[in-house]
Write a structure and sequence with these properties.
This protein is 18% helix and 41% strand. The protein is α+β, with helices and mostly antiparallel strands and 246 residues long. The protein has a seven-stranded mixed sheet with strand order 1-19-2-3-17-18-16. The chain has a six-stranded antiparallel sheet with strand order 5-4-9-8-6-7. The chain is globular.
Length: 246
Amino acid sequence: MTAPFPTDAPISLCDAPVDQPLLLHAIHDRRLAAQLEKIGLSANSRLTRLDETLTLRTIRVESASGQAILSGGMGLKTIIHLDDGRRLPLMDMEVGQSGHIEGTTGGRSLTQILETLGLKEDEPITLIRKLPPMEYRVRLENNQRITLSEGDAARIWGECEQSQIQFSLASAHKTFQVARLLGGHQAQQRLVKDSIQPGSDLVLESVRSVQDLCLAPEPQLVINSQDGLHLHLSQEESRHISVYVL
C-alpha cells in the first residue's frame, strides 16, 4: 500500500531533521533545479539528511578475533594507543598502522559494541582499510527490497552460515538472522523503521559503490537519496529546497 501524501506544510531542507525519511517537495531555484535534475534529484524524490558523524569514512579493522567494520562515528570515538606511543582516534590512523584500544569517548554502550565485535581494550588492532561509500541491497522476509549504507550494514549483528558476524561481512544470497542492532538509539530506530530487528531474516543481494558528488567547495549538509545518491550541499543551496518530513 502506498503511504499517504504528507499533510503538514513543507519545510526548508536546512531545517529538516537528520536521520528522518524526507520527500522532496520543490527546488525553488531554476539553476539548482536543473543541476539536481540531471543527477536524478527532483520533486517526489525520497531522501535522508545525514548527521555529521555518518559522513565519516567507514573503516575495516583486524584484531585477534578477525576483521570488523566500524562506522565513522564509532571510529571517531574509539581511542587508539599506537605502538609509537601516540594516542588518537581510530579514524585518524593510517592504513596499516597498529596499536591497542586505550578506551572510548562513547560510554559503556560503545565499549559493549566493540566487545561484541571482538575488539577489546589493551588488545592489538590494525586499520586495514578506509571504505568508500557503499550501498547494500537487501531482501527482507516479505520480499521487500531496501538499501542500506555501509555504516548501517555494520550496525547489524547476527548469524550467517553458522558464523556470528556483522551483516556488512555476510555472504551474498545467504540467509542472515539478526541477533542485535549495534549503535545508538537513533541508528537502531532507523533500522527498525526498515523492518530490521532481532529475529529478522535478511538476504544480502549485492553491494555497490554509490555516487558521491559535491556541488559546493565547502559542503555543510549531506543527504542520501533512496536511489543511492550521496550528495553534498551548501547551506545556501539547501535553503532553496523544500521537503516534507514523512
